């Protein structure tokens, strides 16, 4: 009976087996250089190393997104159908595992009362109005 409980404990601590033809976040991170540049786009892993020099946006933007999920950056730019048609040639396989999102600054207030630096937004229009009134008073 003790054997059954120890084998169930071992099974629970084992990591799930990664399916063949899939790539994990750890593997993706190993290829984040100009010499070997992989990206994750829409849960698929691409080797874009050969395309670095041809990229119209320059190699810097590709290197910045290398080794991680670049889906948001890819979609934000609004790539053409031609660019999307090139992707199957660079496909390595599917992504396996959990994606960690990029860390973004969180703000304590989302009501628009402060800017990203914590500076109250309402100060700018109030200062402009005060400057205009002071100008009118002194020149009148």
TrEMBL record:
GO terms for cellular component: endoplasmic reticulum membrane. It comes from the Eukaryota. Residues 1-13 have a biased composition (Low complexity). GO terms for molecular function: heme binding; metal ion binding. It is found in: Endoplasmic reticulum membrane; Microsome membrane. PROSITE patterns: CYTOCHROME_B5_1 (PS00191), CYTOCHROME_B5_2 (PS50255). The keyword Heme applies. Keywords: Electron transport, Endoplasmic reticulum, Heme, Iron, Membrane, Metal-binding, Microsome, Transmembrane, Transmembrane helix, Transport. InterPro entries: Cyt_B5-like_heme/steroid-bd, Cyt_B5-like_heme/steroid_sf, Cyt_B5_heme-BS, Cytochrome_b5. It holds the Pfam family Cyt-b5. Residues 20-96 form the Cytochrome b5 heme-binding domain. The keyword Coiled coil does not apply. The chain crosses the membrane at residues 119-139. Residues 1-23 are annotated as: Disordered. SUPFAM superfamilies: Cytochrome b5-like heme/steroid binding domain. It is a single-pass membrane protein. Belongs to the cytochrome b5 family. This is Cytochrome b5 heme-binding domain-containing protein.
């Amino acid at each position: 009976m003790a054997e059954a409980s120890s084998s169930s404990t071992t099974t629970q601590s084992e990591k799930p087996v990664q399916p063949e033809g899939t790539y994990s976040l750890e593997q993706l991170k190993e290829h984040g250089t100009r010499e070997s540049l992989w990206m994750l786009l829409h849960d698929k892993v691409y080797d874009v190393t050969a395309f670095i020099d041809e990229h119209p946006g320059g190699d810097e933007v590709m290197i910045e997104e290398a080794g991680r999920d670049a889906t948001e950056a890819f979609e934000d730019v609004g790539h053409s159908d031609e660019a999307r048609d090139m992707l199957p040639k660079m496909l390595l396989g599917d992504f396996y595992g959990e994606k960690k999102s990029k860390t973004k600054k969180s703000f304590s207030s989302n009501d628009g009362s402060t800017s990203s630096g914590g500076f109250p937004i309402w100060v700018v229009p109030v200062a402009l109005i005060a400057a205009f009134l002071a100008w009118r008073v002194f020149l009148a």
